[in-house]
Design brief:
The chain is an alpha+beta fold. Helices cover 26% and strands 17% of the residues. It has two domains: 79 residues, Phosphorylase Kinase, domain 1; 175 residues, Transferase(Phosphotransferase) domain 1 (Transferase(Phosphotransferase), domain 1, Orthogonal Bundle), CATH 1.10.510.
Length: 339
Amino acid sequence: MAGPLKIISRAKPLVAAAGKPALRFPSKPAAPVPGKPAVGAKPAVGAPAARFPLKFKKPSLRFVPKGSQPPPKKDEPFSSKRYELRRVINEGGMGTIYQAWDTMLGMDVALKMLRPEIAKDAESVAQLKSEASVAMKLSHENIVRLHNIEIEKEHIFIVMEYVEGQTLRAIIQDMGPLALEAVLDIAHSCSSALSYAHERGVLHRDIKLDNLMINSGMTLKLLDFGIALKVARGHDQSEFLEGSPGYMSPEQLHGLPVDARTDVFSLAVVLCELLTGLRTFPNVDDLHHMYDTPPMGIETIPAPVADVLRKGLALDAGERWPTVHQFYHAFEQALKPLI
């Protein structure tokens, strides 16, 4: 079982392939996000050693304290005898995520309130119930537990494990590109969780930096497992997509059948972004030409690693690694000699 992650923001100079210049990440920390309240955080006392014995370098991870965001307005239309909404955590294509208090069990939970247009769509709700019933059976240290789907009057919401921590999106915005050791450790945790789910017939279909979180115990958690829905994007509310622009596979973009190779593609995008600190496919406003340009910044990654990532990012699913496990094994073999 993998131990807690430890994140390094910058690596020592890296020796690239023969004849290639050494890769050196910038030493100056990225500017913090303006107005983001944060406090310092340390791994839990007595936690087991990480799979790779990494050490912190400042700036360390920062976690948003409870209650740092305002609770919902008093006229919030949602009311429940069991759940008390505390604060808004995030808003996405499917709806709004709240930190809530479960009065029955006496603990914090994450509550995802579906957008009204989704909640009223019988086909979407049926799909969600079917897939969530399978996802609820997943039990893995790197997967956020899905507790239940509930209905309160006209509201449909998903109750999940509450995770106190920070997304990988927030981490690289604060720290910039991560060291190779840290990226390898994150890749290992993702691969373990995805392989476990795939063996049980569950695809994620929406892997992105925003759905990957490091909790206060320094364990990586995958959010929204198995509950990706086709939701409207952009100004054209008649255009429904499954996944997130910039991370979704080409087959998702074109509404084709998907399998494990879809998660391989999205994971390859995430790993590129962790190594470069850049959006791999930034042209998200033009869906039809989103993948017309090469992956941003991939030329700065050591050649053996970049080759593995390029195969994972192949636009034709048949040219990608067939499983996440095979993709991770190739990634590890290319990366380890550079650490």
